[in-house]
Structures are given as C-alpha cells and as structure tokens.
Amino acid sequence: MARVPAVATTSAVAAEAARRRTFAVISHPDAGKSTITEALALHAQVIGEAGAVHGKAGRRGVVSDWMAMEQQRGISITSAVLQFAYRDLVINLLDTPGHADFSEDTYRVLTAVDCAVMLLDAAKGLEPQTLKLFEVCRARRIPVITFINKWDRPGNEPLALLDEIEQRINLRPTPITWPVGIAGQFHGVVDRRTGDMTAFHRTPGGATAAIEERLDPAEAARRHGADWQRAVEELDLLTLTGADHDQDAFTAATTTPVLFGAAVANSGVRQLLDVLATHAPAPQARPDLTGRPRPVDAPFAGFVFKIQANMNKAHRDQVAFVRVCSGRFTRGMTVSHAPTGRPFATKYAQQMFGADRETIDEAYPGDVIGLVNATALRIGDTLYDDPPVTFPPLPSFAPEHFAVLRAADAGAFKRFRRGVEQLDAEGVVQVLRSDRRGDQAPVLAAVGPMQFEVATARLETEFGVTTRLEHLPYRATRRTDRGGEEALRGVTGAEVLVRARDGALLALFTDDWRMRAISDRHRGLTLDPLLATS
Ligand code: G4P
C-alpha cells in the first residue's frame, strides 16, 4: 500500500478514498458466500487475514474462537472485515452473518458499505434471506452486482434467472459476462465487451485460481459448437433488449451488472473482482443529519455500525466497529464523540478480527476500524475531528422474533434493568415495553433468535443475572400510531408495544393472515411496513 506523508494532504486522502471499494455479499445460506470469499481472497493479496471469521468450522482449518457459544456451533456471531489489495485498489469485504446467526447486525453492515454483491445459486434463484437483504440495499440505494454461482451444477436457464430478477425485485439485469454451456456444463464465459470467450479449466479441488484461456469467437465456435452458438443467440437477444451496462443506472441502483461463475472452482471470480474494481463506487461524501455532505477529504469522521462484546475470553472487552467516512485516521489520535461532545482517545485501534487482532496505524474513507474498550460508544454514534459532524442514526430493522424476558431472581431487578438498558443501547436486541406488561417483563425483539442467546448470555456473565425467556408467537410487525394502539386493545392475536430506543409504536401480529383480517375490520388503521419485513 502506498504510504502517504505524516500529515496527509486533502488530495492524498481523496486519492486513498478513490482506491477503496467497500462491499458486502448478500445471499441466502448455502449459496456459496464463504466459498466466494475464500476465492476472492485467493485472487488478491490479502492484507488482513479474516478466514477465521468467514470460514466455517472444520473447513480449511479456520475456526473463530472468541465465544463459547460460537465455538459450539462453529459459526461467527458478528460481522468482520476482510481487507485485501487488488490491482492498485484496497478492497474491504464486510461479512454479513447468515445461517443461524442472521441478526440485526447483518442488516446494519449494509449501512457501512458502498456496494453489494448479490450471490445467487443458479438452481435456486432469489431466496428469502437474499430478498430481505436486498430490500435494505434498495432502501439505502446501494448499487448491487449480481453473481450467479454454481454454474458447474445443473440449474436454471440464464435468461430465466434474469427474468426472475427483473420481475421479482424490479432491478434491470445487465450481464457483463454470459455462460457458454448450460448450468452443469460450464465451459467458460463470454466477455460481452470484447466478444471473446474465457474458457475455465478447473484446478483440482479449486485450491488455486482457475486456469483461464482466452479464445476468440472463431476458436470458441470451433471448440464449443452448439453451446457457443446458443450463447451468441442469447447475447443477441440481450443486445436487442438493450440490457447493457450503464454506469449511471447502476450507481442509481436501478440496474445490476450480472456475472456467471462457480466459486468452488474459482471460475468467474476474477471477472467479479474486475467489475468491482472498475464499476463499484468508491466512498462518496456522506450526508450529515441535516443532509449536508461531508467530503471524503474533510478531516476524519466515521460512525459506529456494530458493537461486539466479549470477543476475547481472556480479557473481556468490547469493540466498536467504525466505518471511516472522511479523512485520515491515525492510531492514537484524539477525536470527538458527537453525542456527548467529549474527547475520545483512540489508543487501541484495531482492524480485522477472528482469533487474531492486528493493530492498525492508519485508515481512510471506506475502511473499518475496531476501537477496543470503547464502552462509551453506541451503535450509530459519530466520531469526528473538527469541524463537527453528526451522521444520521442507523435505522432499526423489523424484528421477527419476540420473547418476554424475566429475571429468575426478583432480588436482582436493579441489575436486570441496567443490563437490559445496556443491551438495548448497544443494539444487541430491541427492547419493547407496555404498561400492561410492566418493567419486570420487557419484550425482547430480534431479527434472528441468536440475538436472544447473546443477550441472555451477556446478562448472566456481565450483570450476574440469570433470566428466563418466554417466546411469543408473533411473526408480523408493523409501525402504528395512538389510533392503532386504541383499535388493537384487547384484540386476540395482536398487541401494540413501545420500542424503548425511539418510542416507536409497533403492532405485532401472530401471522400475516390475522394482520390482514384485523386491518380489514378496522378501516383507517395505520400499519406501515418496517424495513426488511418479510
Ligand atoms: P454459504 O457461506 O453461503 O452458506 O455457502 P458455502 O460457501 O458454505 O457453500 C455451501 C455449499 O455450496 C458448500 O458445499 C460449497 O462447497 C458449495 N458451493 C459453493 N460454491 C459452489 C459452486 O460454485 N459450485 C458447486 N458445485 N458448489 C458450490 P458443502 O457440501 O455444504 O460443503 P463442502 O463440504 O463442499 O465445503
């Protein structure tokens, strides 16, 4: 990485920002996120090793070990970052936990990226978790690149997959590459810009980057006859319908460049990196609370998008992950904490997590830093170097799991209350209350059930309170108002609770059917969807 002078000039900061690409993969479990992460790293010069975070237990010997629960399950509970160099760029890949550890953190990661790669299994197309994550991208206007994976296995027709994307999520696909050979008989891809074919020759076990061979159209036709002919015809169709990449439409998040590949064989992964490098946006000026953009070369500013506690059993502590939005961050600098106006020393700034921690000296817009023992920091807080700035608070996402929490020992109520407040402030879970339920029995609400386990484990270890959870049967959530609260009082299968964090009134229903029936009965009832509600 190029070094900049001790005092970075604004143009040096702008140049560093311009070579950052910060993105996340959005996908459904098993589509191949871990595999493609490893494949991307293989093509790149890894700056920080995050295999421990991205890999799965037992795979290539990578197991993250910071929490007993995580160890038992062999999954990572929170998101981390893989940083690597590609060409002259610095790429930051933020992990979006899926599987059983899907949680509000997964959504929040998307507040800290400039682009997303939507990874689809060729045989399955758009799946539920992908759709939820995509809705967050859409709401935040995050440009999305689509990678259709597992082309080495039987799957859908490529045109049918494009149609599904266009019809179901109203995003216009503009393929950059096109497969030669149907799913299951993958010979390579056509590069639509040059018309040449890149043939993939698989290396045993996919341990190294796929061997690529460039074929001109005549040679591709000679070797792949009917498959080549079919690809050419499909490409003609695409060209006729104007499905061509348009940079403005892509950055406005109305179109999606599409690539085909097989992450397990590393096929098509280099092409994905090239599209990220060439088309994905570099960090842009981020608007503050009043909508005024903070230029990337302004003095340092960033916001906390994730807090992770108890990462290291040996020294129980807490790490706040900050996305750098402007300026140059140097370790040890003292910045200001926007909510309190207090100075904040960043002596222990780290990057990359997993089993290892690595101290960083500097970071630029697009990078993520971890601040250790930053107990004063909360999700969404802004840190800055003068002039002051406050970025907008992070959104709360629609919870889908609900449970009443009680202290097992009534004598521990004070600690119980303090602990619940702390977990709410950190965004570990959402805390909902009502007069009827009272202070002793708040309702915890979560995007994924793992959030409950983290909450109860932390109440026990940090606050010494054993708790009991009683799961509630609610599945659908809407935002409502005082009128809704009145109308739903005493209605079976529904309940209105106040979210402690922001005072929002949330109407909970046992299922979508009941919600529709109730809203049909009570005309004029305000029921607004929350972000990422299924
Ligand atoms: P995830 O993180 O999105 O959950 O998916 P992961 O990468 O773990 O991949 C899920 C399964 O799909 C794995 O198989 C993986 O090898 C396989 N896979 C990923 N990419 C491709 C691909 O391009 N082609 C094919 N054919 N398979 C792919 P598994 O049997 O669950 O695990 P493993 O024992 O093979 O590692």
UniProtKB/TrEMBL annotation:
Binding-site residues, GTP: 95-99
Origin: domain of life: Bacteria
Tr-type G domain mapped to chain residues: 18-284
Record's subcellular location: Cytoplasm
UniProt cross-references to SUPFAM superfamilies, sorted A to Z: EF-G C-terminal domain-like, P-loop containing nucleoside triphosphate hydrolases, Translation proteins
Assigned keywords, A-Z: Cytoplasm, GTP-binding, Nucleotide-binding, Protein biosynthesis
One family name in Pfam for this protein: EF-G_D2
InterPro entries: EF-G-like_DII (IPR053905), EFG_III/V (IPR035647), G_TR_CS (IPR031157), P-loop_NTPase (IPR027417), PrfC (IPR004548), RF3_C (IPR032090), RF3_dom_3_sf (IPR038467), Small_GTP-bd (IPR005225)
Biological function: Increases the formation of ribosomal termination complexes and stimulates activities of RF-1 and RF-2. It binds guanine nucleotides and has strong preference for UGA stop codons. It may interact directly with the ribosome. The stimulation of RF-1 and RF-2 is significantly reduced by GTP and GDP, but not by GMP.
Similarity section: Belongs to the TRAFAC class translation factor GTPase superfamily. Classic translation factor GTPase family. PrfC subfamily.
Family annotation (NCBIfam families): prfC, PRK00741.1, small_GTP
PANTHER family for this protein: PEPTIDE CHAIN RELEASE FACTOR RF3 (PTHR43556:SF2)
Official protein name in the record: Peptide chain release factor 3
